[in-house]
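A quick aside before the break. I want you to see a complete sequence-to-structure record at least once, exactly as it would be stored in a machine-readable document. Don't worry about memorizing anything.
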Amino acid sequence: MELTEEIIQFVKTNNCQFVSLKYLGEDGILNQIDFSANNISALKNIFEQKNIDLVPIKNKFFQDPFRSASTLTVFCTNYAIARLRNEIERINSFEHLKNITNINTEISFWIIDDINNHNNIQYVADPIDLGANLRAEIVQCLENIGISTTIHYHGKTEHEYIVGIQGNSLLDLADNITITHFIINNCATSYGKKVIFNQENNSNLSLIICYDCNNKENFHSLVATRLDKVFSCSDSFSQFKFEIKRYTDYSNKDKLCFNIEILTHEYYLPYYLLIRVFNEQ
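That is the input. The structure line, written in tokens, reads:
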């Protein structure tokens, strides 16, 4: 485990007192290991003694807005996640992914306090959309650390809030999903709330993929066939911790777009999800 020169320089420039390394386990749960910035030079030996193998993800580090002491948070991969990331990079070369012009996702979450206090009012607009300020703070935090956002709004079910984010590629989107879950949890905690990302049988993740293509009919058939294949895996939720609930498509000038609604487990690996959805094999 070694930090890049860019990360070390960030620590020095911003007078960070601590560094927090965060990484997904194979169970989809986010873990962290923290250390004093004074121990950076000894980090390699410390991690070798504990048999910890982490690699920082390029450009996925930021000054943590939730820590009382100045802390640099660095998102990392371990060996298992690194293999999945390599697989996503491989499928990026597939024919049906070459023409992607836009890729984003909308993440749903529910406030537990609100769920336990049912109200028949549908919270859709101010002043009774009680999640508007929380969502705005989440979006602001995401943009401050370099994650592009789209929209945020109240979902179709009670106490469901939705935040949209973008990715430069499938791999970047998977990284950003993990970081966004972290930001949502911490922003909610600052409001004295606790969130869950899975509520009953409701879709909790939407992938919006837009393609630039000349022959829309042939391309639609190619992508739809792939989605139907994944959709038909009836045991996918228990085996892979997600399932496609439905998908819709629409044309926008010279673009063909798919909106894929997915139900995921509370804890899952976004890397594996994207591999399953977009892999040709």
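Two observations worth writing down. The domain at 5-77 is CATH 3.10.20.70 (Ubiquitin-like (UB roll)). Residues 25 and 190 are 25 Å apart (CA to CA). We'll return to this after the break.
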